[in-house]
């Protein structure tokens, strides 16, 4: 997509050999611990773990396959790899990726490659080695192939990731093949024969098919009442709120170098993790002097419990909580030269147990009713940027197949 949009020269790549790729930390028992990496990290006992990861992996291959259709992430990992890895590593990972509780999240929906590896090969380790963990293949273009050849672990754009959607808008506008209604709230959807009437604040649009990337509950709120079974299924997809606090400090003040650190729920329920933005992407730092940028993520599934109502909590309170965490975890006690607090309401869907079945029921209902509707976006098949781009691609490919047939 970046290649198609002509943004190749804007890419800031970070390779697997970069310190931001090699060094990732967990905050456990009041200390930062570097996650084991490489062969030496796998065969040695590395704190905060009490045994080598290679031993856990070897024992995993002896565990019998589950016969359940779904299982919580915590149950799956503790059963196959041990309670310690579930309590520390997977708990922290689920908070970093989903801002969610691994004891409630679905293994089948959140980590399908690992779930499929066990189902197909009887073992995570064997399944991943044999390649049973993935089923989707998209042929890489020249830029994607370059990223593989050069071992990119992550990347950004010179003007930040916001320039990606901005470039998409520009490309669509220049193509003159679409008409964009930006910042246009959808008030209601009506079915009129085989077509949709999309009611906006300033008028109505007619469409013969809708690809909805709205959050599930937002779509449920505008569908016609005649589609009540679908509305109920959509309403059952929950989401969580995350407070994002961006901080910039004068000077190079990090005591360690790496991507950042995650915080298991047993350590601090309100703090999800901290990203050391200046390490992988110093190009985004202030052009005036040396600075250090950090992003603190808080709340998620624990937002209301720790911080209260997202509508009522003050930015000052959240900034103070983030500053205390930075002081406690990284020993940074000076005030930031710049800060920004954003409360992202209902920003990450939560794939709880049975999510896959709910999504299948939604799409089955749409097919049976011959509804001119496709579901895309983060509410269904993955929450990452890559996931939602792929879901949009899949929706379009589905439309193309139905047009041919």
Secondary-structure blueprint:
Layout: E1 11-15, H1 19-22, E2 24-28, E3 31-34, H2 38-43, H3 53-60, H4 73-81, H5 83-97, H6 107-110, H7 112-121, H8 124-130, H9 142-149, E4 152-157, H10 163-175, E5 186-192, E6 195-200, E7 203-207, E8 210-212, H11 216-222, H12 228-235, E9 238-250, E10 260-262, E11 271-275, E12 291-300, H13 303-307, H14 315-330, E13 338-350, H15 355-368, E14 373-375, H16 385-404
Parallel strand pairs: 2-10, 8-14
Antiparallel strand pairs: 1-4, 2-3, 5-6, 6-7, 9-12, 9-13, 10-11, 11-12
Written description of the protein model:
It is built from 16 helices and 14 strands. The strands form 4 sheets. A 7-stranded mixed β-sheet has the order 3-2-10-11-12-9-13. Strands 5-6-7 form a 3-stranded antiparallel β-sheet, with no helix packed on it. A two-stranded antiparallel sheet has the order 1-4. It is of the alpha+beta class. Helix content is 38%, strand content 22%.
User: Quaternary arrangement of the chains shown?
Assistant: single chain
Shape: globular
How would a textbook summarize the main sheet? 7 strands, mixed
Relative helix content: 25-40%
The rounded Rg comes to 23 Å
- How large a portion of the residues is in β-strands, by DSSP E? 15-25%
Instruction: Please give the count of helices.
Output: 16
**What structural category characterises the helix and strand content?**
alpha+beta
- Give the strand line-up of the largest sheet: 3-2-10-11-12-9-13
Q: How many β-strands, per DSSP?
A: 14
Q: Any low-confidence stretches, pLDDT <50, length ≥5?
A: none
Whole-number average pLDDT? 94
End-to-end C-alpha gap: 28 Å
Secondary-structure element order, N to C = EHEEHHHHHHHHEHEEEEHHEEEEHHEHEH
